[in-house]
Amino acid sequence: LPIFKPDNVQTSFINESLTILPCGRATFRLRVLNPSTFSETYLLNVTRNDSTIPDQTFTLLPRQEKTTNVIVTPTDCTASGTSDVPVTITSTNTNLTKTSTGKLTVLSSGIPDILLEKTDVTSYHNPIFVPLHIINTGDVPVTYTIFREGPAFVTVNSSSISIPSGQSASLQVDIFPTNATEDGTYDVRISLRANVTEQTYTAVPLHV
To answer: How far apart are alpha carbons 20 and 108 in whole angstroms?
Structure first.
């Protein structure tokens, strides 16, 4: 006599697709229904490292349903595009597993390409100028605030710059050591903060 396990796992995303800015936060709503005539405990798992499910285990009475959150917080602020958010739901009594998949789109808003024409320069206490090129790879105009970390004799010739979507602009890193500047190697870091996301992006170090 064949015996069949009842299909007591019914699940779906209420919001199947979400769109966020870089390093934003997406909260998917996942619906789980127990269609059977007996109580069931469900185990939920999401395989993405940047995702969490606050209610990973819960029990539903017959015909009861529950909506739980699946929270995705990407940590790579330079990444964009569309990716899957797969969630597996397993019933402990019948040992059935199903997968529901959401779609997460991360916009490229504010993400820059930053290029220093030189990353190692040598000065014999003479001025040096290093071009700094910035490309706004995103889909909206962005104003970048410029930050510099390093010795006081290294500056950038602007504190901010506005770049249309898909366009580029150039700045200049000015190196003005004086005769009193001690010989040695100095590290300089140039960072940009995008006004649309408040995320900060750092160029490769400049060694002087």
So the answer is: 9
Per-residue pLDDT tens for 32-82?
Answer: 999 999 999 999 999 899 999 999 999 999 999 999 999 999 999 999 999
Give CA–CA dist 28/45, Å, rounded: 14
Q: Which of 130, 103, 145, 137 is nearest to 204 (CA)?
A: 130
Written as one string, the DSSP assignment of 182-195 is PSS--EEEEEEEET
Which tokens hold the place of 144?
Answer: 């970048």
User: Which residues, 6 or more positions from 164, have their beta carbon under 8 angstroms from its beta carbon?
Assistant: 136, 141
CB atoms within 10 A of CB 104: 21
* Predicted TM-score of the model (pTM): 0.81
Q: Residue 145 in contact with residue 160, Cβ under 8 Å?
A: yes
In the sheet that 40-46 helps form, which strands lie side by side, from edge to edge? 17-20, 97-106, 81-91, 40-46, 57-60
Q: Which residues of 173-206 are buried (b: 16+ CB within 10 A; e: fewer)?
A: bebebeeeeeeeebebebebbbebbebebebeeb
Q: What is d(CA 61, CA 34) in angstroms, rounded to the nearest whole number?
A: 7
| Cβ atoms of residues 194 and 177 within 8 Å | no
The continuous run of DSSP H or E covering 12 comes out as strand 10-13
